[in-house]
From TrEMBL:
Organism: Lacrimispora celerecrescens
Keywords: Cytoplasm, Schiff base, Transferase
A Pfam family it matches: TAL_FSA
Alphabetical list of InterPro entries matching this protein: Aldolase_TIM, TAL/FSA, Transaldolase_AS, TSA/FSA_arc/bac
Coiled coil (UniProt feature): none
GO terms of molecular function: aldehyde-lyase activity; transferase activity
Cellular-component GO terms for this entry: cytoplasm
Name of the featured protein: Transaldolase
Subcellular localization: Cytoplasm
GO biological process, any: carbohydrate metabolic process
Transmembrane segments: none
PROSITE patterns registered for this protein in UniProt: TRANSALDOLASE_1 (PS01054)
Domain of life: Bacteria
PANTHER family: TRANSALDOLASE (PTHR10683)
Length: 226
């Protein structure tokens, strides 16, 4: 499973990259607005930091297919042809996906709440389909189950589209999809930090340190002891 950061703060992105093995960054209009800078200023900064080969996903704002394609061209011009253009999975969005795939663009179908949306995006040629796991939960359905269903639909129908699960609230949701083998998950920095946070691990490490210092002295490590 690819491991992607869902954020636009360059400081947070750098912090996560420093610790974790990361495959790229996703953004959306709300995340960019929260960051407070002009969108392409932020996106160029991210692209420069993560490099040309890492995945960068950027969403269009237009509601009509023609406008979406025009935005996609601007995104590609500014950030590179390998940038994934996020297209909302609406009727107009499906049309835009087909047109962009004919041009060889990388396309991520976003705003997915149903399995059928994802199937139609896959038929349109999308590289990724992004179900909103926790938002689906909030509607009274099961977001993890929906993402698993979508993964199975793609495999059973011979579609190359991969799941890019999004909108996580906790590490358990991420774990279940990792175990299932979905293609990718994009995760906010706070949930990423929660993936490794475990008080029992901290207690165990502290106990090892205390025992070792009892043998060799306070602050001593393996490089210091005889």
């Amino acid at each position: 499973m690819k491991f992607i950061i869902d954020d636009a703060s360059i400081e947070k992105i750098k912090e996560i990259y420093d610790t974790f093995a990361v495959d790229g960054v996703t953004t959306n209009p709300s995340i960019l607005a929260k960051n407070g800078k002009q969108p392409f200023e932020t996106l160029r900064e991210i692209r420069e930091f993560i490099g040309p080969e890492a995945e960068l996903h950027v969403q269009v704002v237009a509601a009509d297919a023609e406008g979406m394609v025009e935005e996609a061209h601007r995104i590609q011009k500014e950030l590179g042809m390998n940038t994934y253009v996020k297209i909302p999975t609406t009727k107009e969005g499906l049309k835009a996906m087909k047109d962009l795939k004919k041009e060889g663009a990388n396309v991520t179908a976003t705003a997915i709440y149903t399995q059928m949306q994802a199937f139609l995006a896959g038929k349109a040629g999308a590289d990724y389909a992004a179900p909103y796991v926790n938002r689906i939960d909030n509607l009274g359905a099961n977001g993890v189950r929906a993402a698993k269903d979508i993964h199975d639909i793609f495999k059973k129908n011979g579609l190359k589209t991969e799941v890019l699960a999004a909108s996580f609230k906790n590490s358990q949701q991420v774990l279940e999809l990792c175990q299932y083998g979905v293609g990718a998950s994009t995760i906010s920095p706070d949930v990423i930090e929660g993936l490794i946070k475990n008080d029992t691990v901290t207690m165990a490490v502290n106990a090892f340190t205390k025992d070792f210092e009892g043998l060799c002295g306070a602050g001593m490590t393996m490089k210091d002891c005889m």
